[in-house]
């Protein structure tokens, strides 16, 4: 998991993963999915909310009062680079349908092809020493 969840119990980590995968989940379904008691599910959701990892909103589901649990998404966790090719934004953004034969799409693909590959530092190893 991420550094933010380093101090979470195994149950809390599993619960946070569930909420993130679902996008949102009613607390009345949350504890069932986790296969824990409603009381334990409530405590887990409350702890995640106290740590700022989820939000709990009052809700009614199947005629019962419950909470809607949603993950908190921090701006620094978002990676918009996957939408870019050079300085061009993906033609898929905001479009329901993209014509694969359009000039805009072709240009975006070509920018991807000719872009320098980004190699994470952990994979690239140390930089070579300059020759003298």
From TrEMBL:
Species the sequence originates in: Halarchaeum grantii
Protein name as catalogued: Transcription factor
Entry-linked SUPFAM superfamilies: Winged helix' DNA-binding domain
HTH marR-type domain location: 9-58
Coiled coil: none
GO function terms (MF aspect): DNA-binding transcription factor activity
Protein origin, superkingdom: Archaea
